[in-house]
Design brief:
Keywords: Membrane, Transmembrane, Transmembrane helix. It comes from Tumebacillus permanentifrigoris. This is Diguanylate cyclase (GGDEF)-like protein. The chain is an alpha+beta fold. Helices cover about 55% and strands about 15% of the residues. The protein is built from 21 helices and 20 strands. The strands form five sheets. The protein has a six-stranded antiparallel beta sheet with strand order 5-4-3-8-7-6, sandwiched between helices. Strands 10-11-9-14-15 form a five-stranded mixed beta sheet, sandwiched between helices. A five-stranded mixed beta sheet has the order 16-18-19-17-20, with helices on both faces. Strand 10 and strand 11 form a beta hairpin. It is rod-shaped and about 130 Å long.
């Protein structure tokens, strides 16, 4: 801070020296007033002042065509007239725009011009005696114009940039060269017009000033339009390139870079809006700043317009460590979301001009449209790979990532651990509390598991129903520790939703490792984790973590109670079934026994198991020999019917219901079932199957004896 104040004082001292030196030069050349001189000074002052009021804005400075009149007076009138007319014109022009600039500039700008002109006259005085002896007056005027103009150009830019550096401690070669380039172009118009004015003055006298005013106004308008078009074209070109990018971060960074180059801001930060309403900032050095809050940011976002603070008070100082005195805030606000704010600052007051504000507003509008569109696309893409209920990745995306990570880990010889979590007795909780509470349990379990998995950079997905799956670059021991942490946290968690409190929620966990368990393929790794879940955790009492071992293989595919295939067998078989086009349309009939919990409560689990066995025999006798029948859940069965037209589904459904209506179960009597149908029309729908079946299960109608659902992808 001390260093900054010292530099700022040096800037003030430099300005004072400029003012004193300029006054000394003016006082050494007093103006001799006559009637003609008064009109010349009046008209010259007015035209120079108007040129100052309507400049062209560059990133770090302003330029105008006032030099046409400046050099016209230099080659047409005496030294004193030239100095005083330029002083008065610059003074009046600065006074007219003083509300847009620093107050001390009222004297600094005129005196700087006087000093630079004096430097030019001094150099010309050294050359004039030799040149005038051998050349005509016209050639002398041309030499005077070129020599004084060149010295003025060099000394003005040198003094100006030293002055800016002392005040702002910021220098950019890019901005400097840009300013020199533009002023060089302007000099190509200034010199000829000034020379034309010198030639016209003997014929039309004082009217020459007004004749020169016309091309000055036209050329100024052309340069201003060209500058705006150049900037607009750059923004449009950048937006065309950005429109092909799907990454919001890339768009944000590119916009940040363009905005900084436009304003030549030494201090800048890209602020992203966070869900809690605060902003997260990153400056050009990549330094991250969290939890930024300020009324100016909220105002810029609410007004959805570029906000300029020309002279920041202490309360308006966004970042005190920046030591800046003017800010400009560029909000990026779309129809669907507030993306953030680009904040830029300069150490000097009034560092940003009205043109900056307009151009940045145009940039913000264009970029906001692109970001808004990409945000919609991003949300659609996210929705396509996430499960709506839990917010986790869905089965399809998980399977894609499993395939990628499996082959990468196999090639690199790295660890890869796959963990499956299953909520114990989840169907019982659904029956007791209802599906709304059951969904909340799923959400909270997902939240707990996700918080643990994120710490180990493991990817978590909803696998189907009440199952979740995680993959990560972990050893067996690291995977076991993660699974055990999730299990304990869920076991100790109090599940509360509205007036319901669900107690004793536990999970069973299965784990398999790529190299340790010699997985041959992504499916093999998944099935080994499945086996450890079912045989190592579920069959051993639940609420535990089990690691795969080879003895699970022979027990995986056949249900020990009913002798039917298990869901694990279906998962292994499904892909090969979908490879045969003759199997489509393929129908999955989900058979759910109604009142199974009542049967268990009233007659006991032994009778309940007998009912499940009888149902399995009944389905075997009812369906065709090549129909695949699996035990899906505790009291649910899944029948796979291949290559049957949808028109025949009614016959199959009637056959199943008739079979159950005619059969009398020992000790129970008649048993009814819910029948839900999910159809695969082609192989591309296979990754969505389990999720669709789970959705169908949650859509059971408990008031009807049979309901058929046909979902489309």
């Amino acid at each position: 801070m001390v260093k900054a104040k010292a530099w700022y004082r040096m800037g003030h001292l430099f300005e004072v020296l400029l003012i004193v030196a300029g006054l000394l030069f003016l006082l050494q050349h007093p103006l001799q007033f006559t009637s003609d001189t008064g009109l010349v000074v009046l008209f010259g002052t007015a035209l120079i002042a108007l040129s100052v009021v309507f400049p062209v804005t560059l990133p770090s400075m302003l330029i105008s065509l006032e030099l046409v009149f400046t050099f016209y007076f230099v080659i047409t009138y005496d030294l004193a007239t030239a100095l005083w007319v330029n002083f008065f014109g610059e003074l009046v022009g600065t006074l007219l725009v003083v509300h847009k600039s620093r107050k001390i500039a009222v004297l600094t700008n005129p005196m700087l011009k006087v000093i630079c002109l004096m430097a030019g006259f001094f150099v010309f005085a050294l050359v004039e005696p030799t040149w005038s002896a051998t050349h005509t007056e016209s050639s002398l005027n041309l030499l005077k114009l070129l020599l004084i103009g060149t010295v003025f150009f060099v000394s003005n830019h040198l003094t100006l940039h030293v002055h800016l550096y002392l005040r702002t401690r910021h220098f950019s070669w890019r901005s400097c060269l840009h300013a020199v380039m533009w002023e060089s172009v302007i000099y190509l118009a200034v010199f000829p017009l000034a020379m034309i004015g010198n030639l016209l003055e003997p014929q039309i006298g004082l009217y020459t000033l007004w004749v020169l005013g016309v091309p000055v106004a036209v050329v100024t308008g052309v340069i201003r339009t060209f500058n705006h078009l150049q900037w607009s074209n750059r923004v449009n070109y950048a937006c065309i390139n950005l429109s092909t990018s799907k990454e919001l971060g890339t768009i944000f960074h590119k916009t940040f870079q363009i905005a900084r180059e436009l304003t030549d801001s030494p201090r800048a930060m890209m602020l992203k809006k966070q869900p809690d309403g605060s902003f997260q900032g990153m400056d050009r050095a990549g330094v991250l700043v969290e939890n930024i809050r300020h009324p100016l940011l909220e105002r810029a976002v609410s007004e959805q317009a570029v906000l300029s603070v020309l002279k920041a008070t202490e309360a308006e100082n966004l970042f005190p460590e920046w030591e800046v005195r003017s800010y400009i805030l560029v909000p990026l606000v779309g129809k669907t979301k507030v993306f953030g704010v680009i904040c830029m600052g300069k150490p000097n007051s009034y560092g940003f001009k009205a043109d900056h504000q307009k151009q940045l507003g145009f940039l913000a509008n264009q970029v906001s449209i692109i970001m808004d569109r990409n945000h919609v696309y991003e949300e659609l893409e996210r929705a396509s790979i996430t499960n709506q209920l839990t917010g986790l990745y869905n089965y399809q995306y998980f399977y894609e990532q499993l395939d990628i990570q499996f082959h990468a880990a196999k090639v690199m010889g790295e660890d890869l651990c796959l963990i499956i979590f299953d909520i114990d007795y989840f169907k019982k909780y659904n029956d007791i509390y209802g599906h709304i509470v059951g969904d909340e349990v799923l959400r909270q379990v997902a939240m707990i598991a996700k918080s643990v998995c994120e710490q180990s950079n493991a990817m978590l997905a909803r696998y189907g129903g009440e199952e979740f799956v995680a993959i990560g670059r972990m050893t067996v021991s690291e995977g076991y520790a993660l699974a055990e942490e999730v299990r304990l946290k869920i076991q100790d968690h109090q599940f509360v939703y509205q007036e319901h409190t669900v107690k004793n929620i536990t999970i069973s966990v299965g784990l398999a490792h790529l190299h340790t368990h010699d997985a041959l393929s992504p499916n093999d790794l998944l099935e080994k984790a499945d086996q450890s879940l079912y045989w190592g955790a579920k069959e051993m009492g639940r609420n535990r973590v089990a690691v795969y071992c080879s003895e699970f293989d022979q027990r995986l595919f056949v249900d020990s109670l009913t002798g039917l295939h298990t869901i694990y067998y279906l998962r292994r078989k499904l892909r090969s079934l979908c490879e045969n086009q003759n199997h489509f349309p393929m129908h999955f009939l989900l058979v759910d026994i109604l009142g199974m919990r009542t049967i268990n409560d009233r007659h006991g689990f032994e009778i309940g198991n007998r009912v499940l066995i009888d149902v399995s025999y009944l389905l075997k006798n009812t369906m065709r020999g090549d129909d695949l029948i699996c035990r899906y859940m505790d009291d649910e069965f899944l029948v796979v019917v291949k290559g049957t037209p949808e028109a025949d589904l009614g016959i199959i459904r009637k056959r199943i219901h008739d079979a159950f209506a005619k059969h009398r179960f020992p000790s129970v009597g008649e048993v009814s079932v819910d029948l839900t149908v999910v159809t695969l029309g082609h192989a591309d729908e296979e990754p969505f199957l389990l999720e669709r079946i789970d959705t169908a299960r949650r859509s059971y109608s408990r008031e009807a004896a049979a309901v058929v659902f046909r979902e489309s992808k």
